[in-house]
Write a structure and sequence with these properties.
Helix content of chain C: 40-55%
CATH class of the largest domain in chain C: Alpha Beta
Oligomer: heterotrimer
Number of strands of chain A: 6
CATH superfamily of the largest domain in chain C: Response regulator
Low-confidence stretches of chain A: none
Strand content of chain A: under 5%
Number of helices of chain C: 13
Strand order of the largest sheet of chain A: 1-2
Shape of chain A: globular
CATH topology of the largest domain in chain C: Rossmann fold
Strand order of the largest sheet of chain C: 7-6-8-9-10-13-14
Structural class of chain C: alpha/beta
Order of helices and strands of chain A: HHEEHHEHHHHHHEHHHHHEHHHEH
Distance between the termini of chain C: 81 Å
CATH class of the largest domain in chain A: Mainly Alpha
Structural class of chain A: mainly alpha
Strand content of chain C: 15-25%
Number of domains of chain C: 2
Order of helices and strands of chain C: HEHEHEHEEHEHEHEHEHHEHHHEEEE
Mean pLDDT of chain A: 80
Chains: A mainly alpha, B mainly alpha, C alpha/beta
Largest sheet of chain C: 7 strands, mixed
Mean pLDDT of chain C: 85
CATH architecture of the largest domain in chain A: Orthogonal Bundle
Helix content of chain A: 55-70%
Radius of gyration of chain C: 23 Å
Distance between the termini of chain A: 68 Å
Chain lengths: 443, 329, 371
């Protein structure tokens, strides 16, 4: 009896080992190695130098070896129990919405005041570099929020978002150059102008969906950039335009007052501190970001926000329910665009200089990545993703060469792992009210 | 038009240019711009084929296709450098060797890209393959930039000399390279048309394009067919890569983006999903762009191409040779 | 005794630490230019020149006893990156001087930033007149100006080539268009009006439509204001379409890479360009040139201009016994500096008092010679 169980036990063990199909893994590894050799060999191994070339077999060998090792490991891992479970979960990635309890009080309610407090104290003991990084992060938060409305909430894939960004930035530069307008006067004007441009973009593309919409918006974004690049006499072309520093009720922030007013450091009696300009921009930007966050938070819960989400899920059902899809789409484009216009004004005054190379398609892709990684429709996710994607390149300055490569790899991997973004959209449940029916039921 | 092409006819198609100092020059400029346009257009057509076939079969815009073309340009330069290093000097062998090498390796690139970035996302959300494609495009650009350096690369001129046709007081000059490009592009498209219309592989591609589920029920390995389509598209882009590299002599790692968008415009212009549409659209776009640059302003010719794209997508999204899309509710 | 010894010991160690800190602090000089991208060839020239100069000066005792340390700032000839680089050089690397930038379109916005921080800048190659015309006291250039270059080119076209039909093309950049405009003004002054004036876009390769348009005007001379990545394909396509006009450009094509950009030496044969008198022929720098060649590098283009810029900075700092930008600037404007390319003197704007531009011609072997 015991020998039978022992044999069975041994048989089970043997059976478990046999489940590793070594031959299949080896073949897969060899195929992967061959493909890696063909793919990496010429481009990495033969480095062109003028008309001749240099031979670099070591790099190719390393890369092929890594690919083969990785493939072998993956192939073996996928044959284990845990591997099979993971791959099953992978191909059936969950979608759908996470529903919270009706009385759920978000933790954000007491995280927010802490964040605001930290943000207000922060400039006092941060150096200029850190402040500039945070300013850039906040600008991208603003951009991410705007695009989140268009792509995340309304489901309209906009690849030319950077065009509205450019309108805001050039609005400040051109307004200063030709009309003598300063930072404060341009801020609302740029938002309105960009919003108007959003409507202009939205109107012709009403009938388009999905990929076609994406390409048309990409075309619009590129047209704006090309016009800015080529219209030398008006926009300065590739050389760009200078942008004035912001003033605070006539007080300037430079070393020498250009407009004839008094520089702030003289007013306050301190030595010239180049940080002051950036602290000022930071404070104003932070307040604007808070305002936009609040507005967006309210909009999502208002009928217009619901209409956007309905549009994203199924446009035809949305129309048959009586929603005017023209108004819904245009409002999404307009509000998203005006946010970008605001961000553009801040970007221009932060950099002190605008030129068309800041508004390429790569920027659009970056903002789209922020929205997608953060989670379509999720505000918190967008804020986190914006900071991660702006701060990380600064940290990885030593890897500057590989920065964009890693960025691309990240995008591909994120799409495979979590296509709906890091933070999933959650909704608070609604408790049915005690109405007539309840009374009738209870009675 | 036929009288223009006959140099002996004596009647010339005159193109009068208004110059800044007021004098008027009479010559065969219009024809020269046509030649420019046709060369450019046939290359757009080759790349557009990749876009249109992929869209026809899985309904996805392969954003990384322009960068596959860019990789093939580098591979062409590498092939040329290696072959001439090993002593191959005669033009036919050199060009044939480079063509075969580039087409094969670029085909492998197409296959690998599809397997790595698109296949796992076939059942995912609508946005996922597009973003993955954008990510792939960035990866390709930077991979080449890091491996080969960020400078622009050059190839030595392979085919020198040109032919000149006199037209009245002016002339049209065609380099042998341009003639070679026109012929090679034509042959490439002819081979592809034969492949799609007359071979089993072509029939499978058309079947999967029409109805993927039904095709798989009937026993066609749809995964493999989709891979073939990517390989074919990449191969056509490789041909374009070799030809363009020969024509201009220089390129850099950013060359894929703009030409990708223009080729996509060509595909849409001709009717996306339709193979003759891609070729036809490419020629039309090339000619329109050259004439615009010549007659109006070469600054804004890219704006013109994009504006054309936007207009077509808004006014006639199915393109010239496509069929209107019907959405089922 | 111990009570008095302790504070004495502490103060001496502190003083020693301070002094040693002062003695061992490096003089950080930023070298800003295009180190990646299509114009990287020029960044290479500038870096090699600056590095050789720094090494030579350090061997001679450095600046005020401190060693020079160079920091690279890559702007890829793009104004936006240049602004970021300028901020980084000032904040993170804490430079006291900058050799750069290279492209005029990068120099103009960054000068404001450097001036704001009191950092002295000397550009080895930015030739646009606007660079020194904005009243910033710490801005210098170690090369000529485009208005001078344009005069030399215009005079050559009218007087030597006796051309009546001239086409002017530019690349819409500050430098390229500035140079083209300067030539245009000189031509017009001499009574020759250009038959075509148009711009092309940097980064493009296909100029066939533009070339056909040029051909329609039947030109004798095509003048191009721009850099070699565009000049190369342009001249090649001109020749391919049968345009035999002379191709003239400026100091933006002074690099061997023009040959590979054009697709072979046969296309650059006969191309002419204006540039300073060949710095390699200057007797003052003979030993420097020989050292470069011994190391296997031909100091073409801007290498020696960059070398002389670092020499000028070192001389100014040594003379004023500090690294203060404003003091050094004031000194440079009133004292000549002997450098590897001769004595250099600056006027009150920061321009060289004497600058020479001559005509060069490329030969069928792909090399250029002074005419």
């Amino acid at each position: 009896m015991s020998s039978i169980t022992l044999n069975k036990a041994l048989g089970n063990e043997a059976h478990r080992f046999k489940s590793y199909d070594i031959k299949k893994s080896l073949i897969e590894t060899l195929v992967a190695g061959l493909l890696a050799l063909i793919v990496f060999g010429p481009v990495v191994g033969v480095v062109l130098d003028g008309y001749s070339f240099n031979w670099q077999p070591a790099r190719v060998a390393w890369m092929t070896a890594i690919v083969m090792a990785g493939r072998l490991a993956l192939s073996l891992f996928l044959q284990t129990q845990t591997g099979q479970r993971l791959s099953h979960r992978f191909t059936h990635a969950d979608s759908g919405v996470h529903v919270l309890k009706p009385d759920h009080r978000s933790r954000l309610l007491w995280i927010m005041p802490l964040v605001v407090l930290a943000a207000l104290i922060f400039p006092a003991f941060a150096d200029k570099y850190l402040i500039t990084v945070v300013i850039l992060g906040l600008i991208y938060v603003l951009l991410g929020l705007g695009l989140n409305i268009v792509v995340g909430l309304a489901g309209l894939l906009d690849l030319g978002y950077v065009g509205f960004y450019a309108i805001g930035a050039y609005g400040l530069a051109l307004g200063y150059q030709y009309l003598g307008l300063g930072f404060w006067s341009v801020l609302p004007l740029a938002a309105i102008a960009a919003g108007f441009a959003g409507c202009l973009l939205g109107f012709p593309v009403l009938r388009l969906h999905g990929d076609y919409l994406a390409i048309v918006t990409l075309g619009f974004g590129e047209i704006i950039r090309l016009v800015l690049n080529n219209w030398l006499t008006f926009t300065g072309g590739p050389n760009g335009l200078p942008v004035p520093a912001p003033t605070f009720m006539g007080i300037e922030f430079g070393r020498q007052a250009k407009e004839g007013g008094t520089p702030i450091h003289q007013l306050l009696g301190m030595g010239y501190n180049p940080n002051l300009k950036f602290i000022f921009i930071y404070v104003v930007l932070f307040l604007v970001v808070l305002a936009v966050l609040y507005i967006k938070h309210r909009l999502t819960r208002m009928p217009i926000g619901r209409a956007w989400e309905a549009l994203r899920e199924d446009e035809i059902a949305c129309r048959s329910m009586g929603l005017n899809h023209v108004l819904v789409k245009l409002s999404a484009f307009a509000i998203g665009a005006s946010t970008a216009g605001l961000a553009g004004v801040f970007f221009a005054s932060y950099q002190g200089f605008v030129n068309p190379t800041s508004f390429t398609f790569f920027e659009s892709a970056l903002i789209l990545a922020i929205v997608v990684l953060g989670g379509m429709g999720s505000t918190v996710g967008v804020v986190i993703a914006a900071f991660v994607l702006t701060v990380a390149p600064e940290m990885l300055r030593s890897f500057a060469e590989y920065r964009v490569l890693l960025f691309g790899v990240l995008m591909v991997l994120m799409m495979m792992w979590r296509p709906r973004g890091l933070i999933r959209v959650s909704r608070t449940g609604v408790r049915p009210r005690k109405g007539v029916m309840a009374k009738v039921g209870g009675a | 038009m036929l009288t223009c092409l006959d140099p002996l006819a004596g009647r010339d198609k005159v193109r009068v240019s208004q110059l800044t100092d007021g004098t008027l020059i009479v010559d065969g400029i219009f024809l020269q711009q046509m030649v420019n346009g046709l060369t450019l257009g046939s290359v757009y057509g080759l790349i557009a084929i990749g876009y249109t076939m992929v869209y026809g079969i899985i309904g996805m815009i392969n954003f990384a296709h322009g960068d596959v073309y860019m990789v093939s340009a580098y591979l062409a330069a590498i092939g040329l450098a290696v072959f001439s290093f090993f002593g191959v000097q005669s033009f036919p062998f050199l060009i044939l060797g480079t063509l075969v090498f580039t087409i094969v390796v670029t085909g492998v690139y197409g296959l690998v890209i599809e397997r790595v970035a698109y296949k796992p996302l076939r059942n995912s959300t609508r946005l996922a393959p597009l973003i993955s494609a954008i990510g792939m495009s960035l990866i390709l650009q930077n991979y080449v930039q890091i491996s080969q350096g960020a400078r622009q690369q050059g190839v030595p001129t392979l085919l020198e000399g040109s032919m000149r046709f006199s037209i009245g007081t002016g002339f049209v000059q065609l380099t042998y390279t341009k003639i070679f490009i026109l012929i090679a592009a034509f042959i490439g498209m002819a081979i592809l048309t034969w492949l799609i219309k007359c071979t089993k592989l072509g029939r499978m591609c058309r079947a999967v394009q029409q109805d993927r589920k039904m095709a798989s029920i009937l026993g066609i390995n749809t995964d493999r067919v989709i891979s073939y389509v990517f390989i074919i598209g990449a191969a056509m882009a490789a041909l374009a890569g070799v030809l363009i590299t020969m024509n201009y002599g220089t390129f850099d790692f950013y060359a894929g983006f703009i030409i990708g968008i223009k080729a996509f415009t060509a595909a849409v212009l001709g009717g996306i999903g339709s193979l003759p549409g891609a070729m036809f659209g490419g020629l039309i776009l090339g000619v329109a762009e050259s004439q615009f640059a010549g007659m109006v302003n070469s600054d804004y010719k890219d704006v013109f191409s994009f504006a054309l794209l936007v207009l077509i997508l808004i006014l006639r999204p199915q393109g010239l040779l496509g069929r209107p899309l019907v959405t089922k509710v | 005794m111990s009570g008095k010894a302790k504070p004495f010991l502490v103060s001496t160690t502190l003083a020693a630490a301070l002094v040693s800190g002062v003695v061992h602090a490096d003089v950080v000089i930023g070298v800003a230019g295009p180190f990646t991208g299509t114009y990287a060839a020029y960044g290479d020239q500038v870096w090699r020149g600056a590095q050789a100069a720094a090494d030579a000066i350090n061997k001679d005792g450095g600046v005020n006893g401190d060693k020079i340390r160079l920091v690279k700032g890559d702007d890829a000839c793009d104004p936006k990156q240049a602004v970021a680089v300028a901020n980084r050089l000032i904040e993170s690397d804490k430079v006291v001087a900058v050799v750069g930038h290279f492209c005029s379109s990068s120099v103009i916005p960054t000068n404001e930033i450097y001036a704001d921080a009191g950092v002295i800048t000397i550009s080895p190659a930015a030739t646009n007149p606007k660079v020194t015309e904005r009243g910033l006291p710490t801005v210098f250039r170690n090369c000529g100006r485009d208005d001078q270059q344009g005069i030399v080119a215009g005079d050559y076209i009218v007087d030597v080539l006796k051309a009546k039909r001239v086409v002017i093309i530019h690349d819409k950049d500050t430098y390229g268009q500035g140079l083209a405009d300067a030539t245009k003004i000189e031509l017009n002054k001499k009574g020759v009006k250009e038959v075509l004036y148009e711009g092309l876009t940097r980064g493009e390769k296909d100029f066939n439509a533009l070339v056909t348009k040029i051909r329609a005007t039947d030109p004798e001379v095509v003048y191009f204001g721009g850099l070699h990545p565009e000049a190369g394909p342009l001249v090649r396509q001109l020749r391919e379409q049968g345009v035999t006009a002379k191709f003239i450009s400026g100091d933006g094509i002074v690099t061997d890479e023009l040959v590979s950009a054009a697709g072979g030496a046969q296309y650059v044969n006969g191309v002419m360009m204006t540039f300073g008198a060949d710095p390699r022929n200057n007797p003052a720098g003979k030993s420097v040139v020989e050292k470069f060649r011994a190391n296997g590098y031909e100091p073409e283009g801007y290498t020696l201009y960059s070398y002389s810029s670092v020499q000028a900075l070192a001389a100014a700092f040594n003379a004023t016994k500090s690294t203060n930008g404003e003091k050094a600037s004031a000194w440079l404007k009133s004292h000549p500096v002997p450098t590897a390319i001769g004595n250099k003197e600056w006027d009150k704007n920061g321009d060289l008092k004497v600058s020479d531009y001559v005509m060069y011609q490329w030969g069928p072997d792909g090399k250029y010679k002074q005419l």
